[in-house]
């Protein structure tokens, strides 16, 4: 009979980095919800059922879910953009572009695309 040590089910609470990792992975559920919500909106638009969709979307539980989803998706995006330099190494003439420049470029692009979307919707 072999010894198996007891499993620590709350291992991610030991370090802040572990907790952020687990929370980021859980926010993927809210990213999926946002995609489903967008598909439902497009389906309602295609079927001409926008008033019924807006009535459903205006219910308190859907509004609360979307507010939580907005916060979760924002957290997901920020942590993703902050991790980009770990996965992307850019070299220019043998010089490695510093992490802060990659992160700054990512956030600048996010801001520019968001501003463009707001301008188009306005």
Give a written overview of the molecule:
Helix 2 packs across helix 4 (60-87) and helix 4 (60-87) runs antiparallel to helix 5. The chain contains five helices and two strands. The protein is flat. The protein starts with 15 loop residues before the first helix and ends with a helix. By secondary structure, the chain is mainly alpha-helical. The chain has a two-stranded antiparallel ribbon. It has a single domain (13-121), classed as Up-down Bundle (3 helical TM bundles of succinate and fumarate reductases).
Q: Top keywords for this entry?
A:
74% helix, mainly alpha, two-stranded antiparallel ribbon, 122 residues
Order of helix and strand elements from N to C terminus: HHHHEEH
CATH topology: 3 helical TM bundles of succinate and fumarate reductases
- CATH homologous superfamily classification: Fumarate reductase/succinate dehydrogenase, transmembrane subunit
Beta-strand proportion:
under 5%
The domain tally reads 1
Q: Tally the helices: what do you get? A: 5
Any chance you could write out the topology, listing elements then pairs?
Elements: H1 16-26, H2 28-47, H3 50-57, H4 60-87, E1 91-92, E2 95-96, H5 99-121
Antiparallel strand pairs: 1-2
Organism: Acrocarpospora corrugata
Transmembrane segments: 21-41, 61-85, 97-121
GO cellular component, one term: membrane
TL;DR?
The protein has 122 residues and is mainly alpha-helical. The protein has helices at 16-26, 28-47, 50-57, 60-87, 99-121; strands at 91-92, 95-96. The mean pLDDT is 93.
